[in-house]
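User: two proteins, same treatment. go.

Assistant:
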Amino acid sequence: MDERFRGQSMRRWWGRLLLAALLWSVIGLLFALPAFSSAGWNRTLLGSLAQWWSWGLITPLIFWVDERLPFKEQRLGMRILAQLIPSLLLTLVYFYVFFAVRALLGLSPWAMFTDIHMLSNAFRGGILWSWLVYWLIFGARQTYRYYQYYLASSYASSAWSAAFLRHASTRSVCSSIRTFSSMR
């Protein structure tokens, strides 16, 4: 039984990994679409894929930090404040991952990691854009969490309503029987 559960869990994990890879690839493809009409489109496509695959690799870290926050879903303001420092740090980590993926795809040399100006180039190359992407991922996560919370509370509310109606209808049936019995 335990082995079967572990096998299902592993298949579910691989399915999620494949779905995530597909999602980040589609986003990378969409951002590269304008370059398809120009020469060198394949390099632009690889650069876009490197960018979005890197975000795909960082996203589990964003979710991990979010899961460890001591604030409930209802305290969104505190969740946002608690994310300020991790968002900056993980955005910097993103740049290292991005440069590594670019090097793996042959778009940049590995020697880039020894360049002392690597981070200053990152700051000029769009750290604010990357920080915005971080917050979009965080926002999408919060939206999903609130949706799940809404579904759970809606289900609990409907279950409560159904129980109330069952109880109320039972009482009305009993009341009707008593009334009918007293009429005799």
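Protein 2:
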Amino acid sequence: MTAGVLAFAGGSVVSLAAAVTAQPSLTGVPVGAGALWLAAGYVVVVGRGR
């Protein structure tokens, strides 16, 4: 469940960055999404080992 919440949060960050980028003279870079998705992958890989 934790990995799913992290993945969903990453998608929300991408959505927010897309909305910001739609504004004139602004660019949103979803750096946090990558971090959240890496954390979700870590939870999946490590969580299965326990």
